[in-house]
Amino acid sequence: MYISYNWLKDFVDFALAPQELADRLTLAGIAVESVTELGKDISGVVTGRIEKIDPHPNADKLVITRVNTGEEKLQIITAATNVKEGDVIPVALEGAKLAGGFVIKRAKLRGVESRGMMCSGQELGIDAKTMSAEQAHGIMILPPGTPLGRDAKEILGLNDFILELDLTPNRGDCLSVVGVAREVAALLGRPFRLAEPSFPETGENISGQVRVDIDAPDLCRRYVARLIKNVRIGRSPLWMQSRLRAAGMRPISNLVDVTNYVMLEMGQPLHAFDYDKLVDHHIIVRRAKDGENMVSLDEVLRELNQDMLVIADPSGPVAVAGVMGGLSTEVTDNTTSILLESAYFNPVSIRRTSKSLGLRSEASLRFEKGIDLGGCLQAINRAAQLIYDMDAGDVVNGVVDNYISPVSEKTIMFRPKRATYVLGLDIPKEKASDILSRLQFKVQDAGADLLVTVPTYRVDVSIEEDLIEEVARIYGYHEVPATLPSGSASHGAKTREQSFRTMIADAMAGAGFNEVVTYSFTNPRVFDLMNLPADSPFRNTVKIQNPLSEEHSVMRTMMLPGLLEVLAKNFNRRMQEGAVFELGTIFTPGQEGHPHEERHVLAAAAMGRAPGNWKMQPREFDFYFLKGVLESIFRELGTEDVKFYPEKANPSFHPGRTATLDAGERKIGIIGELHPSVLERYDLPERVVAFEIDFEGLYAVSGKPKVYNPLPKFPGIERDLAIVLKRENQAGDIMETIRKTGGKLLRSVSLFDIYHGEQVPAGYQSMAFALKFQAADRTLTDAEVSEVTAAIAAELSSRFGAQLRG
User: Domain 2-38+161-188: which topology?
Assistant: First the structure.
């Protein structure tokens, strides 16, 4: 919101410098983002009239003009084509400074002397968007009656400062000059003045010439209309044009400019209809019908629906209420009578309509935040006064005021003791009463308390705490004393689950994985990319009611697609190696009548090779690398034994290079190489390994306490055990049996060789294990170790049919 410093002075007298005023407003909660001085670089520019134009003797595109500035007549050469004799224009004299630091000097153009320059709007620092193309790039033409020799900055309103406000959503009342002026008056303790509009009315009463029906009273509580006849379309006064430009608006015509001027001044959007184009001169405020459409003022066909409020006549919609008017009733140069509209529309309805149509206007911005229901009549009367003062039309006698639901002023009890408790600051009752009165609240004494009536334009004030805030911000937040917080202090700490999450993230990062965060919503197409069958439970998704796009229309049921998209983007940018992980949430629909379920999942994916260092060669990311990472993390987390079992049925993974993770009887995850067809669809290299683990399942079997064991004092004995058994037996099951049979004397077991070939029968394999035996209280003898080794061999023979290899 842009506010003119000079415009504020129409309503309150003050002498504060613009920046000081901005600081005071900001401290009171009306944040001022910037203060801009208009015409800052402009000097030496006066008004002049072109008295004579002659052709240049040496140039076809130049003319020689004689310009009267009131004190002297100057010869100025120009190439402008939009000037004629009698035009009043801004003239830059010798030594004048223009926008951008340009200095005017006496010059000769094709042998003829030129003393000065005629100015365009842009050369005076006026934003081109607020002017017509002719005024912006050609010479700026001023009204014929403009006095000569006057400072152009004063005439064009460039001796002003513009305050750019950054308002909070609740302060819709400050989207107007009057609203900000009330704040200034309250802050400075100066009188606020707002005169009631006054103008003569003519002709027959409006009641027989205009009819207004409100068929949607829940969306339109008030509709006020005035009729203006004998309309004379023309340019608005220069002072009005200047103020509109200062607010970032382009002047169009006197009648359109009046509606914009009143909106900026009083915060009430107005609209003007061509009265003669309204069928039966009948206004109907109703919901749109499905399938209806209307061409708006920007010449775009708008599709309407029954959730939108429209202004219609018996033939159909003529405006989208509170957003934009229709082209069919546009005010043109041929208009002779206009119907002015000043109404109150439901803020939620306007916001939804504006968003649905993709139309956001200055009017809709104000309606969305809530305007003054009690100020509709005053605003339309102000517009009528301006039209009369400009001699732009005759105001017809009377006004149509269809006031369905009159506003009732809110009365709130203000308790000074409560204010002291809330603020920690003792503001005397008399001071609080003075502040509220300066803010235009009606205050009555109620003994120890105050009875406060809130004006209708302050829609943001509804409870006692709102009044306390009003008193505090005008009194000054800087007056609130600094105090130390009181109360009992408690030591913050993470829960066990939060600590567990942190440990996992740290362990994954320590293993060389980068943490990523991907979208929780996804495209249903990813299930096809992951090879999932039509009946896969992963396709049972939580659907988003209003998705931003099809790409993000359902909530994810698995984590891997997001990680694969990260790897694919990196791979396409020649980052051919990388490992990423995410600890996120997946979503599954609940049973009928129940909300969806959310589960945390740890997922990771890697491609390429793990980086090496000075003592270790780079290693390819494969199944065993990922398995080793998980096993080291399980040990770090104190996780009970998790077993890996072959998995061939998962269509997303490579058969024969995939395993499930089981903890007891519970399956908690899957690990392996992704299926080649999945990699092809994601444009990934030949090998990508990944895993997904249920976080809750992992958490349930974790947290086994770590027990300190001192270093052994007695030496151990190492033995190798080589066995031959059928190839379908798993190494994990063999090692588990060895550990259980070896008992306390067996310190460790590891597989160091697997062999299939001519040395063993077909369908069999040889497996060699390194066993280490050690006791904490003595040195073991060969006989003891041999006895345990024999027991292990016997158990392996019994369970797996294993034979010792010679």
Answer: Phenylalanyl-tRNA Synthetase; Chain B, domain 1 (3.30.56)
* Chain centroid offset of residue 83 CA: 47
CA distances from 553 to 522, 542, 543, 557, 752 (A): 6, 9, 6, 13, 50
For the chain (806 residues), the mean pLDDT of every run of 10, in chain order, is 93 93 92 91 92 89 91 89 90 90 86 89 87 81 90 91 91 93 94 93 92 94 95 92 91 93 95 94 94 91 92 94 92 93 94 90 91 93 95 94 89 94 90 94 93 92 93 89 78 86 91 93 92 91 84 91 94 88 92 78 91 74 90 84 85 91 87 93 90 91 79 90 89 89 91 87 91 91 92 92 85
Provide the CATH topology of domain 206-403.
Answer: Phenylalanyl-tRNA Synthetase; Chain B, domain 3 (3.50.40)
* Contact indicator for 671, 623 with CB cutoff of 8 Å: yes
10 Å Cβ neighbour count for 53? 16
Degrees to nearest 5, angle at CA 585 with 581 and 590: 150
Question: Between the CA of residue 538 and those of 165, 530, 587, what are the distances in Å?
Answer: 51, 10, 10
Under 8 Å between Cβ of 531 and 677: yes
Pair 414, 450: CB distance under 8 Å: yes
Query: What class does CATH assign to 43-155?
Result: mainly beta
The Cα 384–Cα 255 span in angstroms is 10
What is the structure's pLDDT at 451?
95
pLDDT for 481:
81
Of residues 574, 475, 497, 564, the one with CA closest to residue 526 = 564
What is the distance between the terminal CA atoms of the chain, rounded to a whole angstrom? Answer: 92
Domain covering 496-700 in this structure, CATH number: 3.30.930.10
pLDDT for 593: 56
According to DSSP, residue 675 is labeled P
In the structure encoding, which two tokens stand for residue 268, read together?
Answer: 């009430």
> What is the Cα–Cα distance from 335 to 232, expressed in whole angstroms?
8
CA distance 543 to 587: 10
Looking at residue 424, its pLDDT comes to 85
Kindly provide the residue ranges of all beta strands, DSSP E only, lying in 527-677, ordered along the sequence.
554-555, 578-588, 597-607, 609-610, 619-620, 643-646, 653-663, 666-674
- Joined together, the tokens standing for residue 448 give 């120890």
What is the distance between the alpha carbons of residues 342 and 263, in angstroms, rounded to a whole number?
Answer: 10
pLDDT confidence of residue 594 = 65
Find the length of the chain.
806
Q: How far apart are CA 267 and CA 260, in angstroms?
A: 10
Q: So what's the pLDDT on residue 617?
A: 76
Enter the tokens of residue 654.
Answer: 């490579």
* The pTM of the whole model exceeds 0.70: no
Q: Would you state the structure tokens that stand for residue 581, as one six-digit string? A: 């992980």
Where do runs of H (alpha helix) occur along 207-346? 238-246, 254-266
CATH 2.40.50.140 residue spans of the chain: 43-155
CA distances from 567 to 413, 624, 682, 787 (A): 62, 20, 9, 53
Q: Which residue has the tokens 């072959």?
A: 646
The DSSP bridge pattern shows strands 293-295 and 220-229 to be unpaired
Please state which CATH class domain 717-804 belongs to: alpha beta
List alpha helices for 189-247, DSSP H: 238-246
Phi, psi dihedrals of residue 602, rounded to the nearest 5°? -100, 125
Structure-token match 């797996």, residue found: 800
Cβ atoms within 10 A of the Cβ of 722, count?
Answer: 16
| Secondary structure class of 430 (helix, strand, coil) | helix
513 burial (CB, 10 Å; 0-12 / 13-18 / 19+) is: buried
Q: Report CA Rg, the chain.
A: 41
Question: Contact at 8 Å (CB) between 224 and 342?
Answer: yes
What is the assigned CATH class of domain 410-477? alpha beta
Q: Show the beta-strand stretches assigned E in 178-219.
A: 211-214
433: helix, strand or coil: helix
Residues paired with residue 619 on neighbouring β-strands, in sequence order:
610
